[in-house]
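$ fold --in a.seq
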Amino acid sequence: MSTSIVKPELLAPAGNFEKLQAALIYGADAVYFGGENFSLRAFGDNFTRDEILSAVDFTHARGKKIYAAVNIYARNADFDALADYLKFLDAAGVDAIIVSDLGVIALARQLTDLKIHVSTQANVTNFHAAKTFHELGASRIVLARELTGEEIADIKANCEAELEIFVHGSMCISYSGRCWLSKFLTGRDANRGQCTHSCRWKYQLVEETRDGEFFPVAGDERGSYVMNSKDLCLLPNIAEVIRSGVTSLKIEGRMKSVNYVAGVVKVYRAAIDSFCDNPDKFTVRDEWLDELDKVAHRPYTTGFFAGDGKPTEIYSTSKPKRSANFLGIVRAFDASTMTATVEQRGKFTVGQRAEFLQPCGETFSQTITEMRDVDGEEIFDAPHAQQLVTLPVDKPVEVWSLMRSPT
């Protein structure tokens, strides 16, 4: 690896314990999670205290790191419970907390030895702010998503703190997620983890003297999802991202599926390793882009990184698309019989074409020729959620491989 290139951390979302496992097994260097309170994903699975302890053990056993999101904007009434939670996270051994509120930063420094990562919610867009947070005790700054690559490099050159940026996942229409639309329309506060994604709704206009008459907001056939953002994908710019000197590349998606986490992590793991091994001959591979098309996503954008001013909204629909269906997870492989035991996550049948995305090995495809249930009885489909099915495989397959089919 070139001495001028420092390999960045690949940081993946852990919406629950299974997703945490998938992220680490597919190549993430670190994961971030939310507890049952104080993070910005109130409607996610989130982690109980017992699950946090198990997650820390699982992560550290693999020599990886784990960060806790504590990034709400706290109210006065939150601080007694916050103090107890911060002390618990410190005792549990999490490697850092992700915080946006200055009061929470002060409390964490007073009560714990936890490392502090400043959340993107803090809207850090310049090196003066980054240096100030660093002086206040933060070891890492998660920069605002609205920065160009040139601005990121400039902050790096003028600040000693570690820098982290988002490289993939859903984008917010509001400035680094600081949005009041959900609170105004539904009473659910996005800044306290209760966002209803009001920006992705379809809107129409009503003129005050014509009650009941609705007019489309958009003036053409594209539709009226006027605030609906595309999804971020900086894979095409990964060389420039790494050269900027940032410490950590973050994937958004604590609410996304195991299939999403595994597929996206594997792509960025391969891209980071490939670039750092040989920067001068690095190219973005078509198969990486194809893999990112298989997970649920809206049309991709490079966001603000290139500073090219290209639109980041998609007006026609707010629904994500994907080019593959998630069918199941390989839980066991018997080399003597060349059979895999698959935990079902989507309906599949004998005669169906399926592919296996492996944590380390090559992806391969085959036809399902036979299936048996846990009693060894022959079956022709797998309709029940999470039932275990044994089927012959054409090649050895790794445990934790994902079985999928084309849409």
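$ fold --in b.seq
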Amino acid sequence: MAAIDIIKWEVNDKDFCHKYPSDNISMGSQLVVYPGQTAFFVRGGKICDGFGPGTYTIQSDNIPILDSLINVPFGSAGNDGGTGKSKSPFKAEVWFVSGIARLDFKWGTPVTMQLEDPRYNIIVPVSAFGQYGIRISEPRLFLESLIGNMPGFAASQIEAYVKGKMLARLNGIIAHKIAEDGVSILDINSRLAEMSDACQKALNQTFCAYGISIVEFSVISVSVPDDDPSVVRLKEAKDMAARIRITGRDIYQMERSYDVLEKAAANEGNGGQMLSMGAGLGVGIGVGNIMGNMAGAHLDSGLQNPPPVFDKTYHIYVDGRQIGGLSAEAVMQYVKSGKADMTTLAWTSGMKSWAALGTFPEFGRMSGFDTDVPTPVPGVE
């Protein structure tokens, strides 16, 4: 191959570096380095000299390291037109590295990240996407670290390399930033600028070892699936916290007690029957078990000690026979039908002996009758 006269690489946005196609170079050739580029002579795998933007005539006095490596004889008569400078060709590679940033790369989490909300301690699936740029900040380090004997390094190649390492780290970076700031995942989109800066700083600590800088990194959106059960719970927790902040904890608890009472009255189960039979608001408060003494002041129920939830079964002695396994409501049905009254003997788990029905606090209050009753019939088992 004939010796060349001009060595250059036209700037483009498809490649970050380029190896000049010929390694047959002669002294006196011109090296043209465009703005944003750095050119290196490489011989035998060793990077010799680097040149910034400008036009250079290749001579021994401006590439002294290369000159010592190739040991070009100078002053050969008839080879330089009497100038005393050799124009003999020599073998060396010329690499160009572009320092111009490309800013149009996209990133996105390929699978959802499972992150714990630092405020409500609920783990939810999170997706994120954004944009970033790449710039070769240390051209020599970039050549030494990644190029080797490759003929070039296209933008698509470096994008694939950077994106793979980037996505492997972003999960941890985003999770750490969310935990550090204590911001709910539902509110993170209001902090995207801070999130972007933190990601760019952390990623550059990784890529600086390769002479690569991540620039203009941005987190455009962090999203969660609205129909995911964990996200639903997270939104409910956030709504509850907001209501407590606005109304105060005591008032919020009172509102919740009203909800419990309404649901109990609407149900056809035991709770609804008790309310309909006159158990009253105090029973509902006992079912809710959330108001305590505060409910008496707010609701003016007049009950100092609301009766407990009826979860016992009872035995009663009616018409000379023992009837067992009855709920409190079933016992009251016997009273209402006239088959039993407050003097009827009854027994439930935990009692040592039978006692009159009127001596049971729950039935005495429900009936409204005088609970002073005659002494139970002795000898009844």
